[in-house]
Amino acid sequence: MQWQPIENLPSNWEDLASSELPPLVTVWNEQAERLRSSGEFKTFMERLCREIAIETGIIEGLYTLDRGITRVLIEQGINEALIAHNPNNPANPPIKQIVSLIQDQEAAIEGLFDFVGGQRSLSTSYIKQLHQLLTQN
């Protein structure tokens, strides 16, 4: 198959929609509301936020954590006692500082979720707050 440029949708694009979609959207919205009203959604979002925070610090080279420790921190929360001292990696900062860095990342990510969810608007002060969160430790 040879490359071709993307073409506009045909004028009758509404006819392409499946009749199964509206009922699926209804079911999706009902399930989403059920999850939001249960603790499951909140737990999922907390774990997602922790995972993004931890992985961001690893990608930025602020610290290294093995996959097992990362999973435990995601599941159980950010806790110094869950991070093993790794004498083989002298480049890592002290465990207390790693926890502070992760917590800073986590706070910034929660703020980004607020922005994406429409609870915050993009402004100079908002960007300065994110910068302050990310650089305080």
Largest sheet: none
The SSE string, one letter per element, is HHHHH
Give the termini distance in whole angstroms.
53 Å
Specify the structural class: mainly alpha
Shape, principal axes of CA atoms:
elongated
Strand content: under 5%
Average pLDDT: 87
Which stretches are poorly predicted, pLDDT < 50 over at least 5 residues? none
Compute the gyration radius: what is it? Answer: 21 Å
Give the number of DSSP strands: 0
Could you outline the blueprint of secondary structure elements for this entry?
Layout: H1 21-37, H2 39-59, H3 67-76, H4 95-116, H5 124-135
Helix pairs in contact: 2-3, 2-4, 4-5
Overview of this protein structure:
There is one protein chain. The chain has 137 residues and is mainly alpha-helical. It has 5 helices and no strands. Helix 2 (39-59) runs antiparallel to helix 3 (67-76) and helix 4 (95-116) runs antiparallel to helix 5 (124-135). It is elongated, with a radius of gyration of 21 Å.
Distinctive features:
mainly alpha; 0% strand; 5 helices
